[in-house]
Structures are given as structure tokens and as C-alpha cells.
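Hi L.,

You mentioned the student needs an example of a multi-chain input paired with its predicted structure. This one should do, with 631 residues in total across all chains.
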Amino acid sequence: MNFFMQRMMGGKEGAVAFVIIAAVILVLFPLFLDIFRLNLVGKYLTYAFVAVGLVMCWGYGGILSLGQGVFFGLGGYAMAMFLKLEASSPEATAIQSTPGIPDFMDWNQITALPWFWEPFNSLPLTIIAVLVVPTIFAFFIGVAMFKRRVGGVYFAIITQAIALILTVLIVGQQGYTGGINGITDLRTLLGWDIRDDSAKYILYFVNAILLLGVIMIGRFVITSKLGRLLVAMRDREDRVRFSGYDVSAFKIFVFCLAAMFSAIGGAMFTLQVGFMSPSFVGIVPSIEMVIFAAVGGRMSLIGAVYGTLLVSFGKTYFSEVAPELWLFMMGALFIAVVMAFPNGLAGIYQKHRSKVIALGRRLCARVPFCPTYRVGAPRPSES
Amino acid sequence: MSSDTDFLLAIEDLTVSFDGFKAVDGLNFYLDEDELHVIIGPNGAGKTTVLDMICGKTPATSGSIKFRNQELTKLSEHKIVHAGVGRKFQNPSIYENLSVLENLEISFPRGHGVFGALMFKRDEQVVRRVEEIAEEINLKDELHTQAGLLSHGQKQWLEIGMLLIQDPQLLMLDEPVAGMSVKERQDTAHLLRRICKGRAVLVIEHDMEFVKSIAHKVTVLHQGKILAAGDMDHVQSDPRVIEVYLGH
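Structure written out for the whole complex:
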């Protein structure tokens, strides 16, 4: 229990923050939002997986990746391939010249299912692919870069290039990937219709609980010696190396972990939104995800979730109000945050932490069963 | 390959050239167990480069470095550390964002792999060793202070402590008293005399008073070559050393 509190929650204060975010996601949103808006929030929260991963590898590890969309996309595509195959039963695709293969393959004169699609007939294999394929891909990138001590701006540019390459590849290989349209018209998961409202509710909660789980894993890593090593590496890489550590191994680990988090988000995105396309893989979404983490505070796992929600709400709102200006606003927001609040929302909280905690105590004292509840504490009406 | 030796560290024919410039040129250097050896020499003599090559930071162009008859030139940095070589940098190189305790704990020689680090527990053995070292380097009362807030001298000691906790057989210190007050220099001299029991210490230093107070043996480097070696008095009276380094 003590282990759980200290390592998974990050102590008492961490536990309070965790309970608050859990309450917001699991109780507040479902209570006050209709299913359309809730589904939208669910979509935003899938980006939060990426932002949490970025806090780990950028905030703590000092590795800025501008290509996290790649891993989000790989996870999302893996899930989409499974759902697409299920939606492409011979009966449902009887009008095609080759029934039983996804429609876009048929349109591109492909007559048999490509070999790499075969594993996605099975859900367990798909889930393994969601978790393992992006991680292995990240591992290879990590080995190639970090063993050669490539870092900083160079690493960021290379990840950016990888994001572009993957987008071009997906768009170009239309017959195998669905091209620019992506993989669309996904209907059921093992016969369960993912498009109706009840399914959307369930998927929202599955997504939320997975996100909370990912945050706990992140906490566990950060509070371990590995977490302190990451911070130490960011400050003094040579010192860590000459204290007997293989620095590249730790960078590879945290980069792979971030990739796996992103992939889970991608898979949940596909399930909730019902399609996957290259527009979630490339440069723009990858950079947006960095902005989410920066706005939330790149040293705060929970801040990343708030950052994601805030920027995504802003994006939806402004893109409805001023579609042409949205990208400029996004850029301005990023610059403003970096200039004025380098530690993001979490930094603002840290600055006013004592006041927030005092306020929390005062509010708490009015609630029965709270640890600091005092009989006779002034009620709002009395004060 | 050169034959086995009884020396702790045997450097033979070591050369490194940067674009044709030989920073270290055919160096032969031997270090005994328990020896406190100081390398002096004018700027650009190749002192720091020698340390860099021993600890694997700079690859040698040719020659051999044997530590207990194990060839170091082909090992990666962290493996050289595991072999028992510790290195302190010229500028205090500590983790400013972590506490003194965490700085020392990270250097504790356990859990060096990814999963070892994930599962590392601050048990009694670790705490005892950290306190022991903190006592040695006069930082016992600062265990929970953020390392960035320490004074310059304390940072230097902390880095020495981070090496001591690894219990290396060879400890290399690059200008350990640079920027220290007179009192701090004296304390550091005491510290070095204490810690060279049971291990060899190789120091680069410019402060001749300090060198006199600690060195068993002194080597003078000049343009990548050894100019003179021996005890302090011998070296100080060597006319070539006076010419290029000590002055009149």
C-alpha cells in the first residue's frame, strides 16, 4: 500500500491531483456532456496518451521528438486494419470484384489480401501489434540515433523527417493503406457495434481508465531511480556516463515507452472516432502533440492531460469561429506559453501552490469525512 | 601486444592526434597501487586529454592503456567505470536539480541497467554508504539540500564523493581545487590523503603549493610528452621544467 502511494501516486499531493483528474474525466464530463461532446472529449484524451509520453521522453529525458504522430498512427492503423477486415466479410463486400478484402484494395485492383494484413484477422494479434510494432520501431530509431549520440535538435529533425516519410508512404501505397482517405467505414469489434451511443460511452470509459493507468505507469517510472537518472542525464550526460551507466539504453527505454503510450492512444482513437487517416500521422499533428505537453507543463504527467484538453477545446472552438486563423493562433499560443510560462499550466500551479493547497484545505474542511473536516467550520452561508 | 605488468595502470606509446596535431605523443606512463600521482604542465600540454583517453572519452589513435592488465582503449565509457576507474571533471559536474543524497545514490554501484534502475530500492545498505561518504566529504548536514545550492567548493567535494561511492581502484581528478578558498584547499588535501589509502589517485593541478602538500610523485607534461618525472624536489629543480612551466 505504501509502495502504491509513493511510487504509483507520487505521494499525498500526487494522489490528490490524480483523484481530481480521475473525477474530472470519469464523473464530471460524463455527467455534464452529451454523447456527441463526450465522444469529442474521448478523442482529445487519446491525444493525451501522446502528451503523457512526451512528458516522459521530452520533459524528463530531454529528448524532443517531433514525430510522435508516427507511433500514434501505427497504433491507430493496427486497430483500424483489424476493424476493417471485420467490416469486409465476403457477404458485406459481395458487390466487389474480389469479395472479402477491404474496399479500397478492390478499388486499386488488388485481388488478394497482402501478407502483412493477415495477422489482423485476429484480435489478440492486433492488440500485440498495437503495443509491440510501434515500440520496436521506436527501438530501432533509438538504437540508430542514441548509440551514435545523436540528440537535441538533430534528433528532433530526424523524427520530423520520419513522420513525413511515413505519411508519404501511407498516401502513396493507396492499395495497401487506403491512401489519403485512410481506413474508413469501421463498424464492429467482434460483432459489437462501436458506432452506437452505448458503445461510445463504454469506449470513453475504457479510454479514460487506460489513460489513468498510463499515468500511473509514468509515475512509477519517474519516481524510480530511472526517473532521477533521466533528470540527471538531461543536466549532465557525461557525468551519468562516467558513473557507469550506458546512457543510450535509458534514452532508448524512455523513447520506446513514450511510443507505446502513443500507440495505445492511437488504437483508442480509431475505436472512438471510427477511422484512421494519414492526417494524424504527419508533421502537423506531431507538433500539435508537443504543444499539448508544453501547455500542460512538460514536467507534469497530469498537466499534460489538462494541456491536451485545453488546447483541443480551443482548437475546436477557434477552428469553427475562424478557420483560416486557427494555425496562426496555435503558433501564437505555443510562443506565448514558452515565453511567459515555460513550465506550462503545471508551472503556474507550482507557483501558486501554497495558495491552492490552502484553498483546498478550506474547501475540504466543509466536507464531512474529509481528513481535515472540522466540526463547526464556517459554512459558505455563514461567512 | 605488450606483456603483463604489476602496475595498476600502464600506458604505453599512447598517441592521439586531432587532424594531424598530436595532443599526446608516444606517452609512457606507469602508476602503482596506492600511489598519489600529480600531473602538471603548461596549458595545452595534453593533461586533460590523457585523462580523457584513460576514461574512454577520447579514443586513442594508437598505443595501449592497461588497467590491471585489462586493455581500456577498446572498452566503452561505462565499462571502464565498471572496471574500477572513476573520473572527476574540471568543472564541478553534479546534478544540480537533485539533492545531495540523490546525487550520491545515483553513483552507488548497483542497478546500472534499465530494469535494475526501475527496481532500485533505497535500502539500509545504500543509506549507510551514502551517509558514510557524506561524512567523508563534509556534507553530512547537507544531504537533503539541492545540489545546485551548494558552494563551489562543496560541489567539488560532492563530485569526489560521487566517485568514492563507486569505490574505484583508480581515481582521476582534474583540477580538484580550482576556485577553492585556502581553507577549502587544505581540507581537500586532507581528503585526498585519506582517500588514497587502498586506491591510486591521479590528479591534474596547477597550484604548486597544493601539489607539494599531496603528491607522492609528479609528472610534468609538455606538448604531449613527458618532460620530467619523479618526486617534487627533483622535478622542481629540473632546469627544463623551470624553463617551460615553473618560471623563475
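You could point out the following to them. Confidence is low (pLDDT under 50) at residues 373-383 of chain A. Chain A touches chain B through 24 residues (CB under 8 Å).

Best wishes,
N.
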